[in-house]
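step 4 of 6: structure.
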Amino acid sequence: MKAIRIHEFGGPEVMKIEEIEIPVPKADEILVKMFASGINPADYVVRQGGNVILKPFLKLPLGLGLDGAGTVEETGSDVSRFKKGDKVYGLPNFLNGTYAEFIAAKANQFAIMPNNVSFNEAGAIPSCALMAWDGTNLGKVNAGQKMLIHGAAGGIGSLALQFAKAKGAYVIGTASRYNFDFLKQLGADEVIDYKDENFGGLLAAIDVVFDASPVFNEGARMMMAAALKDYGRFVSVQLPHAFSEEFLGILTRKNAEAKMIRRELDIAQSLSDIAKLIEAGKVSIVISKVYPMGEVAEAHTALETKHVRGKIVLEIRKENESRNEAD
Ligand SMILES: NC(=O)c1ccc[n+]([C@@H]2O[C@H](COP(=O)([O-])OP(=O)(O)OC[C@H]3O[C@@H](n4cnc5c(N)ncnc54)[C@H](OP(=O)(O)O)[C@@H]3O)[C@@H](O)[C@H]2O)c1
């Protein structure tokens, strides 16, 4: 089978399509025939050699890709939740390498994908959606509360915005001006340009801040902390950038909480709950562009601009391959 792998760290050119053996699922695993994989920031961070958190885990050669969607090809002897042919989406163990025609992964890292989306759409959902899901849950955002989402037009931000709206929150999203209409279409109540140096001056009485930006900026973090209400919550995706003493001081004075998202949740249950929201039409996944496997370098280059709207996807097989098999 074909898989995209790296034998050295570096630029997009180090990714190569290789022929490797189809993996054999263990007792608690499923073999998934992959149709699409999401392209996520961790993919280019791993390709470049990692950051302070990831570096110790990276041993070459490596398969790339965090998440994806496909059909169940085979089930391990202990797996009863799925049968051959089920359409699933999931987030396998880190470094399992979803840019591949087949992957073997734990069954409890997958769920049945939403019935109203394509494989390309489903493949783009799991990693970002689980970050956004965990973030809105850790933020304990409720109906009527004011939630600020920083970086609301990106993969995580665009889903967090919709999850917060589905909970009835009042949502303020930050983005570049060209994304204002996009955020409003997703349901944002207010939009703010984070490039305005003093955007914090436009904010007050925020119950929950969700920092989903791919760019760390201590100044922006401090401005958003200043806008938090007493007993507010500040949630961040930026694990490599620990909260500073000064930042924590502001939160302590407000009796506010600060949390880094670690995505410690039940993956299968959360993906099933997310699928229900998508099937109910309350949340949609926005795909900017689909790239074939042969254009993975272009896909990474696009994501590394840090200005992709919604998601980009790696198409591993064409959708009609599954229809032909069903005929
Ligand atoms: N994706 C995952 O599953 C995952 C998992 C763990 C951690 N993370 C981390 O979470 C962060 C976000 O991930 P993502 O997948 O949502 O990234 P992404 O899709 O690449 O984010 C792109 C968005 O970021 C916005 N943006 C760019 N520069 C910004 C800035 N200086 N301030 C605020 N927003 C800015 C852009 O908005 P405009 O184009 O409107 O400027 C664009 O919409 C990354 O740092 C990633 O490492 C992600």
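step 5 of 6: annotate
 - Residues 40-42, 127-128, 131, 150-151, 153-157, 174-176, 179, 194, 212-215, 217, 237, 303, 306-309 surround NAP (CB under 6 Å).
 - The chain is about 30% helix and 25% strand.
step 6 of 6: archive
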